[in-house]
Amino acid sequence: MESLRDELLAVFDAEYRDHLRAIRAVMASGCASRRDVAEIFRRVHSLKGAARAVELPGVESVAHTLENRLSGL
């Protein structure tokens, strides 16, 4: 039987892939509007929280840094 953390990591794997796919799609479209930046920010924020939940501090740190940079836009 999988541990709870293994189950959470499996969910995180699917979630982060979805967030990255969406971020890449916005970036490929030119990221021309405030709405596009807001969508990326929301996705990065969600990714940061998910990384914290599964205890992946490296991912959490990168997401936090990106979130800070995006907030300036």
SSE diagram, text form:
Layout lengths: L3 H25 L5 H20 L3 H15 L2
Shape call: elongated
Percent in strands: under 5%
Domain count: 1
Number of DSSP E strands: 0
Give the class from helix and strand content and strand pairing: mainly alpha
**What's the main sheet like?**
none
CATH topology: Four Helix Bundle (Hemerythrin (Met), subunit A)
How do the helices and strands follow one another from N- to C-terminus? Answer: HHH
- CATH homology group: HPT domain
Structure description:
The chain is an all-alpha fold and 73 residues long. It has a single domain, classed as HPT domain (Four Helix Bundle (Hemerythrin (Met), subunit A), Up-down Bundle), CATH 1.20.120. The chain has three helices and no strands. The protein has helices spanning 4-28, 34-53, 57-71. Helix 2 (34-53) packs antiparallel against helix 3 (57-71). The termini are far apart.
Essential attributes:
73 residues, Four Helix Bundle (Hemerythrin (Met), subunit A)
